[in-house]
Amino acid sequence: MRAILSWTILLIFMAPCIFAGKCSVNITVEPQVIKAMIDTQENFCSATVTLMPVNILNKDNVTNDCDRWALVFEVEGLLEKLNFKFGSTNHKNKETLTNTYRSCIFGVEHEEWDVVNAYLQTVQKSPIEILQRVNYSLNKLDGFNPDYDSFSGCLSFYGKSRPTPKAFKDIPEVEYMKEKIYLQWVLIVTLVVFLLLFLCGFLYYSHQYRKLRRRLSVSCDVDLTRNPHAVLPEEREPFPVIECDTV
């Protein structure tokens, strides 16, 4: 009995070492789980979505084991960004997704994590976009069953073959900032144009006002307030003299 108990304890402690070199990803209910999580995000998320920096594989075609290893680390990093209340349905769903690839990242050192993350590209994504990306990457990993030794060979590949950054589609926050800057420039240009028009109008009417004053000053040279009875005799216009013939 003691021998059986001893072997049982020994196997328990040796199990992590035995299975540490195994990696197996098989997709079954994961798409349905992710869909349920996306539905809850759409129902309960506020209008203002928080964007989070995440690392993803910047490649359209995943063709080799090193890319699939990178996807494993990508999915782990994506799910780490999502925090749910302990014991909630989404927390349990997150654990279900994590168990899909947990055997692949068992025993990975921090330095190895850093090498893989350097191979990935940092982008901004919302919680729903993160879940959509997890679904995409897990589908690419379906049936992935390499030896752990292959990961060691990929570490040097990651250091030498970093993908060239691609132009990602603008995220909502970037679009909002672009629109905000555009509206600010439109407002500034509008104000400048308005001030220029106001200044031109002010100068034009000031010029017209000065011209009008000069004309009035010339026309008012005659003294209109002079008493007509005080006009000198020589200034008076003589009346015409009419001579009449006597009968």
What does this structure look like?
There is one protein chain. The chain folds into two domains: 13-164, Growth Hormone, Chain: A (Up-down Bundle), CATH 1.20.1250; 170-208. It has a two-stranded antiparallel ribbon. With 247 residues, it is mainly α. The longest helix has 48 residues, at 172-219. The chain is built from eight helices and two strands.
Short account of what is shown:
This protein is 61% helix and 4% strand. The protein has eight helices and two strands.
Write the layout of secondary structure elements.
Layout: H1 2-19, H2 30-44, E1 52-56, H3 65-80, H4 89-105, H5 110-119, E2 121-125, H6 127-141, H7 149-160, H8 172-219
Helix pairs in contact: 2-4, 2-6, 3-4, 3-6
